[in-house]
């Protein structure tokens, strides 16, 4: 995987203290801790706002969590592409979702350590069903899923339990989405109803 801010000496320390400071002055707290396992997929939910990105990074730095995250390929055009990749970004062509899942599984197989952040909604716009790309990546790579969250109602960013997939996607998704009941994004009206059926679309 590409070299990121999480690998950069001095800068990563400064970034952590800056993150702690920013969370404190904005009234945010963190919950949970990074699991002591080498590889896992992280759910990023709910995803309703551009503010999710900085608060996710602040939370990751504060909790000593080195992450890679997926973003639409248009974000990585010149001149910002190098910068976003340095922040841990991986460009995704959403028109080729199956290839994205396959590529992600290959990265897990190639790397001894990898924490990959994947939002189940895939977009900050209003959606009614969770996409299942994150699930297929975790299940295909045989790695667990870490339930990450940003709760704007409580101003808490954190890490929940680690979930191991069984291959029974409907049953597993019911458990996973149940964890997010009561967790509110910045714009709750854009949040997915956790009782809605999952989407067969797999793109992140």
Detail the topology: elements first, then pairings.
Layout: H1 11-25, E1 29-31, E2 39-45, H2 52-62, E3 68-72, H3 81-86, E4 89-92, H4 97-110, E5 114-118, H5 133-141, E6 145-151, E7 156-163, H6 169-179
Helix pairs in contact: 1-2, 4-5
Tally of DSSP helical segments:
6
Number of strands: 7
Mean pLDDT: 87
Distance between the termini: 19 Å
Q: What are the secondary-structure elements, in order, as H or E?
A: HEEHEHEHEHEEH
Provide the low-confidence segments as ranges.
none
Number of domains: 1
- What share of residues is helical? 25-40%
* Main sheet: strands, sense, barrel: 7 strands, mixed
Going across the major beta sheet, what is the strand order? Answer: 1-7-6-2-5-3-4
Our estimate of the beta-strand percent is 15-25%
How would you describe the shape? globular
Radius of gyration: 16 Å
Structural class: alpha/beta
